[in-house]
Design brief:
- The protein contains 12 helices and 2 strands; from the N terminus they run ααααααααααββαα.
- The protein is mainly alpha-helical.
- A hairpin with a 2-residue loop joins strand 1 and strand 2.
Protein backbone atom coordinates (compact mmCIF):
# COMPACT_ATOMS: atom_id res chain seq x y z
CA UNK A 1 0.00 0.00 0.00
CA UNK A 2 1.43 3.38 -1.03
CA UNK A 3 1.95 5.76 1.86
CA UNK A 4 1.61 9.51 1.72
CA UNK A 5 5.40 10.21 1.78
CA UNK A 6 5.92 7.69 -1.06
CA UNK A 7 3.15 9.38 -3.04
CA UNK A 8 4.78 12.80 -2.60
CA UNK A 9 8.15 11.44 -3.71
CA UNK A 10 6.61 9.90 -6.81
CA UNK A 11 4.89 13.18 -7.65
CA UNK A 12 8.17 15.08 -7.38
CA UNK A 13 9.78 12.75 -9.85
CA UNK A 14 6.90 12.93 -12.32
CA UNK A 15 7.28 14.92 -15.54
CA UNK A 16 5.85 18.39 -15.36
CA UNK A 17 3.71 19.62 -18.22
CA UNK A 18 3.87 23.26 -19.34
CA UNK A 19 0.31 24.55 -19.60
CA UNK A 20 1.34 27.81 -21.27
CA UNK A 21 0.31 28.03 -24.92
CA UNK A 22 3.17 28.58 -27.31
CA UNK A 23 2.81 31.59 -29.59
CA UNK A 24 4.25 29.70 -32.57
CA UNK A 25 1.81 26.81 -32.50
CA UNK A 26 -0.28 26.60 -35.70
CA UNK A 27 -3.50 26.87 -33.76
CA UNK A 28 -2.33 30.01 -31.93
CA UNK A 29 -1.14 31.64 -35.15
CA UNK A 30 -4.42 30.81 -36.87
CA UNK A 31 -6.42 32.31 -34.00
CA UNK A 32 -4.29 35.47 -34.03
CA UNK A 33 -4.62 35.94 -37.79
CA UNK A 34 -8.38 35.42 -37.69
CA UNK A 35 -8.73 37.90 -34.83
CA UNK A 36 -6.69 40.52 -36.71
CA UNK A 37 -8.75 39.91 -39.86
CA UNK A 38 -12.01 40.31 -37.94
CA UNK A 39 -10.83 43.62 -36.46
CA UNK A 40 -9.75 44.89 -39.89
CA UNK A 41 -13.11 44.00 -41.45
CA UNK A 42 -14.96 45.63 -38.55
CA UNK A 43 -12.93 48.83 -38.93
CA UNK A 44 -13.54 48.92 -42.69
CA UNK A 45 -17.27 48.41 -42.14
CA UNK A 46 -17.36 51.24 -39.58
CA UNK A 47 -15.74 53.78 -41.91
CA UNK A 48 -19.01 54.74 -43.72
CA UNK A 49 -20.88 55.00 -40.42
CA UNK A 50 -18.19 57.14 -38.81
CA UNK A 51 -17.93 59.39 -41.87
CA UNK A 52 -21.70 59.93 -41.98
CA UNK A 53 -21.87 60.67 -38.27
CA UNK A 54 -18.91 63.05 -38.57
CA UNK A 55 -20.57 65.01 -41.38
CA UNK A 56 -23.86 65.16 -39.50
CA UNK A 57 -22.22 66.36 -36.29
CA UNK A 58 -20.04 68.95 -38.05
CA UNK A 59 -22.62 70.35 -40.49
CA UNK A 60 -25.80 69.72 -38.54
CA UNK A 61 -24.42 70.54 -35.11
CA UNK A 62 -23.47 74.06 -36.18
CA UNK A 63 -27.12 74.98 -36.74
CA UNK A 64 -28.64 72.95 -33.93
CA UNK A 65 -30.06 75.13 -31.15
CA UNK A 66 -33.26 75.60 -29.18
CA UNK A 67 -34.81 77.97 -31.72
CA UNK A 68 -34.36 75.46 -34.51
CA UNK A 69 -36.15 72.81 -32.43
CA UNK A 70 -39.12 75.03 -31.58
CA UNK A 71 -39.76 77.27 -34.63
CA UNK A 72 -41.64 76.67 -37.88
CA UNK A 73 -39.92 76.06 -41.24
CA UNK A 74 -39.04 79.23 -43.16
CA UNK A 75 -40.21 80.18 -46.63
CA UNK A 76 -37.84 80.12 -49.60
CA UNK A 77 -36.15 83.50 -49.19
CA UNK A 78 -36.45 83.72 -45.39
CA UNK A 79 -33.59 83.27 -42.95
CA UNK A 80 -33.72 81.42 -39.66
CA UNK A 81 -36.64 79.18 -38.84
CA UNK A 82 -36.63 75.61 -37.62
CA UNK A 83 -38.48 72.30 -37.75
CA UNK A 84 -40.32 72.00 -34.43
CA UNK A 85 -43.55 71.03 -36.19
CA UNK A 86 -41.72 68.26 -38.07
CA UNK A 87 -40.50 66.74 -34.79
CA UNK A 88 -44.02 66.81 -33.38
CA UNK A 89 -45.49 65.37 -36.60
CA UNK A 90 -42.94 62.54 -36.68
CA UNK A 91 -43.66 61.55 -33.08
CA UNK A 92 -47.43 61.73 -33.63
CA UNK A 93 -47.42 59.60 -36.78
CA UNK A 94 -45.04 57.04 -35.28
CA UNK A 95 -47.29 56.97 -32.22
CA UNK A 96 -50.37 56.35 -34.38
CA UNK A 97 -48.53 53.59 -36.20
CA UNK A 98 -47.54 52.05 -32.87
CA UNK A 99 -51.10 52.19 -31.52
CA UNK A 100 -52.24 50.25 -34.58
CA UNK A 101 -49.43 47.75 -35.05
CA UNK A 102 -48.29 46.92 -31.50
CA UNK A 103 -51.57 45.53 -30.07
CA UNK A 104 -52.45 43.60 -33.24
CA UNK A 105 -48.85 42.40 -33.60
CA UNK A 106 -48.65 41.09 -30.03
CA UNK A 107 -52.06 39.38 -30.26
CA UNK A 108 -51.03 37.76 -33.54
CA UNK A 109 -47.75 36.61 -31.99
CA UNK A 110 -49.59 35.04 -29.03
CA UNK A 111 -51.78 33.09 -31.45
CA UNK A 112 -48.79 32.00 -33.55
CA UNK A 113 -46.70 30.92 -30.56
CA UNK A 114 -49.25 29.53 -28.10
CA UNK A 115 -52.79 29.07 -29.37
CA UNK A 116 -52.42 27.66 -32.88
CA UNK A 117 -48.73 27.33 -33.75
CA UNK A 118 -49.19 24.49 -36.24
CA UNK A 119 -52.50 25.48 -37.81
CA UNK A 120 -52.88 26.44 -41.46
CA UNK A 121 -53.87 30.00 -40.59
CA UNK A 122 -50.71 30.33 -38.46
CA UNK A 123 -48.53 29.16 -41.33
CA UNK A 124 -50.25 31.59 -43.69
CA UNK A 125 -49.83 34.44 -41.18
CA UNK A 126 -46.13 33.71 -40.78
CA UNK A 127 -45.68 33.68 -44.54
CA UNK A 128 -47.47 37.04 -44.86
CA UNK A 129 -45.44 38.58 -42.03
CA UNK A 130 -42.16 37.45 -43.55
CA UNK A 131 -43.27 38.76 -46.94
CA UNK A 132 -44.16 42.13 -45.42
CA UNK A 133 -40.66 42.47 -43.97
CA UNK A 134 -39.36 42.86 -47.52
CA UNK A 135 -42.21 45.06 -48.70
CA UNK A 136 -40.93 48.31 -50.25
CA UNK A 137 -41.98 51.20 -48.06
CA UNK A 138 -43.41 53.11 -51.00
CA UNK A 139 -45.94 50.30 -51.56
CA UNK A 140 -47.17 50.78 -48.00
CA UNK A 141 -47.60 54.47 -48.82
CA UNK A 142 -49.58 53.72 -51.96
CA UNK A 143 -51.83 51.33 -50.03
CA UNK A 144 -52.52 53.88 -47.28
CA UNK A 145 -53.10 56.52 -49.96
CA UNK A 146 -55.77 54.39 -51.60
CA UNK A 147 -57.41 53.42 -48.28
CA UNK A 148 -57.41 56.74 -46.41
CA UNK A 149 -56.28 59.68 -48.53
CA UNK A 150 -58.65 59.03 -51.41
CA UNK A 151 -61.53 58.21 -49.04
CA UNK A 152 -61.09 61.22 -46.75
CA UNK A 153 -60.01 63.56 -49.53
CA UNK A 154 -56.99 64.94 -47.65
CA UNK A 155 -53.49 64.09 -46.58
CA UNK A 156 -53.38 63.53 -42.84
CA UNK A 157 -51.48 62.22 -39.84
CA UNK A 158 -53.70 59.09 -39.51
CA UNK A 159 -52.92 58.20 -43.12
CA UNK A 160 -49.20 58.51 -42.41
CA UNK A 161 -49.62 56.47 -39.23
CA UNK A 162 -51.43 53.74 -41.16
CA UNK A 163 -48.57 53.51 -43.66
CA UNK A 164 -46.01 53.30 -40.87
CA UNK A 165 -48.12 50.66 -39.08
CA UNK A 166 -47.88 48.40 -42.14
CA UNK A 167 -44.10 48.62 -41.94
CA UNK A 168 -43.97 48.11 -38.18
CA UNK A 169 -46.41 45.18 -37.99
CA UNK A 170 -44.20 42.33 -39.36
CA UNK A 171 -41.28 43.29 -37.11
CA UNK A 172 -43.51 43.30 -34.04
CA UNK A 173 -45.17 39.98 -34.96
CA UNK A 174 -42.01 38.02 -35.74
CA UNK A 175 -39.92 39.29 -32.82
CA UNK A 176 -42.77 38.86 -30.35
CA UNK A 177 -43.39 35.30 -31.56
CA UNK A 178 -39.73 34.38 -31.08
CA UNK A 179 -39.72 35.98 -27.62
CA UNK A 180 -42.79 33.96 -26.62
CA UNK A 181 -41.23 30.75 -27.90
CA UNK A 182 -38.15 31.38 -25.74
CA UNK A 183 -40.17 30.95 -22.53
CA UNK A 184 -39.09 27.60 -20.98
CA UNK A 185 -41.62 24.81 -21.31
CA UNK A 186 -41.01 23.78 -17.70
CA UNK A 187 -42.50 27.06 -16.48
CA UNK A 188 -45.66 26.46 -18.48
CA UNK A 189 -45.89 22.83 -17.39
CA UNK A 190 -45.58 23.88 -13.76
CA UNK A 191 -48.41 26.38 -14.18
CA UNK A 192 -50.60 23.78 -15.87
CA UNK A 193 -49.79 21.35 -13.04
CA UNK A 194 -51.05 23.88 -10.51
CA UNK A 195 -54.41 24.00 -12.28
CA UNK A 196 -54.01 27.17 -14.37
CA UNK A 197 -55.98 27.47 -17.58
CA UNK A 198 -54.30 28.16 -20.92
CA UNK A 199 -55.33 31.81 -20.86
CA UNK A 200 -53.95 32.21 -17.33
CA UNK A 201 -50.65 30.63 -18.35
CA UNK A 202 -50.35 33.00 -21.30
CA UNK A 203 -51.31 36.13 -19.35
CA UNK A 204 -49.54 35.38 -16.06
CA UNK A 205 -46.49 33.36 -17.11
CA UNK A 206 -45.64 33.50 -20.81
CA UNK A 207 -46.35 37.14 -21.61
CA UNK A 208 -44.58 38.70 -18.56
CA UNK A 209 -41.54 36.48 -19.10
CA UNK A 210 -41.30 37.36 -22.80
CA UNK A 211 -42.06 41.07 -22.29
CA UNK A 212 -38.42 42.30 -22.57
CA UNK A 213 -38.02 40.54 -25.91
CA UNK A 214 -41.36 41.88 -27.13
CA UNK A 215 -40.37 45.43 -26.18
CA UNK A 216 -37.09 44.98 -28.03
CA UNK A 217 -38.98 44.21 -31.23
CA UNK A 218 -41.30 47.16 -30.63
CA UNK A 219 -38.34 49.54 -30.26
CA UNK A 220 -36.76 48.23 -33.46
CA UNK A 221 -40.03 48.69 -35.34
CA UNK A 222 -40.37 52.25 -34.03
CA UNK A 223 -36.78 53.03 -35.02
CA UNK A 224 -37.43 51.82 -38.56
CA UNK A 225 -40.67 53.78 -38.91
CA UNK A 226 -39.09 57.00 -37.64
CA UNK A 227 -36.84 57.32 -40.67
CA UNK A 228 -39.30 56.45 -43.44
CA UNK A 229 -39.88 59.04 -46.17
CA UNK A 230 -41.64 57.47 -49.15
CA UNK A 231 -44.84 56.39 -47.33
CA UNK A 232 -45.28 59.85 -45.83
CA UNK A 233 -44.96 61.56 -49.21
CA UNK A 234 -48.09 59.68 -50.31
CA UNK A 235 -50.05 60.01 -47.07
CA UNK A 236 -49.03 62.98 -44.89
CA UNK A 237 -47.23 65.19 -47.44
CA UNK A 238 -45.87 68.22 -45.55
CA UNK A 239 -46.98 71.32 -43.72
CA UNK A 240 -45.44 74.58 -42.49
CA UNK A 241 -47.87 74.78 -39.57
CA UNK A 242 -48.15 73.24 -36.14
CA UNK A 243 -50.16 70.06 -35.75
CA UNK A 244 -51.51 71.33 -32.41
CA UNK A 245 -52.64 74.93 -32.35
CA UNK A 246 -54.93 76.84 -29.96
CA UNK A 247 -55.54 73.66 -27.98
CA UNK A 248 -56.83 71.77 -31.01
CA UNK A 249 -55.23 68.93 -32.95
CA UNK A 250 -55.52 69.29 -36.73
CA UNK A 251 -54.93 65.62 -37.47
CA UNK A 252 -56.96 65.54 -40.69
CA UNK A 253 -54.59 67.89 -42.49
CA UNK A 254 -51.16 67.63 -44.16
CA UNK A 255 -48.58 66.89 -41.47
CA UNK A 256 -44.88 67.70 -41.34
CA UNK A 257 -42.22 65.09 -40.61
CA UNK A 258 -38.45 65.16 -40.28
CA UNK A 259 -37.77 62.78 -43.15
CA UNK A 260 -39.93 64.69 -45.64
CA UNK A 261 -38.46 68.00 -44.47
CA UNK A 262 -34.97 66.67 -45.17
CA UNK A 263 -36.13 65.48 -48.59
CA UNK A 264 -37.66 68.86 -49.44
CA UNK A 265 -34.98 71.16 -48.04
CA UNK A 266 -31.95 69.22 -49.31
CA UNK A 267 -32.94 69.96 -52.92
CA UNK A 268 -33.52 73.70 -52.45
CA UNK A 269 -30.97 76.26 -53.73
CA UNK A 270 -31.01 78.20 -50.45
CA UNK A 271 -28.21 77.81 -47.93
CA UNK A 272 -30.55 78.33 -44.98
CA UNK A 273 -32.77 75.40 -45.95
CA UNK A 274 -29.77 73.16 -46.65
CA UNK A 275 -28.38 73.89 -43.19
CA UNK A 276 -31.77 73.08 -41.67
CA UNK A 277 -31.80 69.79 -43.60
CA UNK A 278 -28.43 68.85 -42.06
CA UNK A 279 -29.66 69.77 -38.57
CA UNK A 280 -32.87 67.78 -39.08
CA UNK A 281 -30.80 64.80 -40.27
CA UNK A 282 -28.78 64.93 -37.06
CA UNK A 283 -31.94 65.08 -34.94
CA UNK A 284 -33.46 62.14 -36.85
CA UNK A 285 -30.31 60.04 -36.44
CA UNK A 286 -30.25 60.81 -32.72
CA UNK A 287 -33.93 59.85 -32.47
CA UNK A 288 -33.32 56.51 -34.18
CA UNK A 289 -30.20 55.98 -32.03
CA UNK A 290 -32.25 56.47 -28.88
CA UNK A 291 -34.81 53.85 -29.96
CA UNK A 292 -32.09 51.37 -30.94
CA UNK A 293 -30.25 51.92 -27.65
CA UNK A 294 -33.47 51.33 -25.73
CA UNK A 295 -33.98 48.06 -27.60
CA UNK A 296 -30.47 46.90 -26.65
CA UNK A 297 -30.93 47.89 -23.01
CA UNK A 298 -34.29 46.14 -22.80
CA UNK A 299 -32.90 43.09 -24.59
CA UNK A 300 -30.08 42.74 -22.05
CA UNK A 301 -32.59 42.47 -19.24
CA UNK A 302 -33.57 39.06 -20.64
CA UNK A 303 -30.19 37.64 -19.61
Amino acid sequence: MTTRPDLLESMKGAKRFDLKRSFWEPRSLRSLLLSIGAWIVALIASVPLISVLYMLIVRGGRRLNWEVLTELPPAGFEEGGGFGNAIVGTLVMVGIGGLISIPFGILAAIFLAELGPDSQIANAARFCAKTLTGLPSIIAGVFAYAILVLVTGTYSAPAGGMALALLMLPTVVLTAEEALKMVPQNMKNAAFGMGCTHSQVVSKIVFPTALPGILTGVMLAVARASGETAPLLFTALFSNFWLFENGRAELMAPTASLSVLIFNFSGMPYENQIELAWAASLVLVLLVLVFNSLSRIIGRSRI
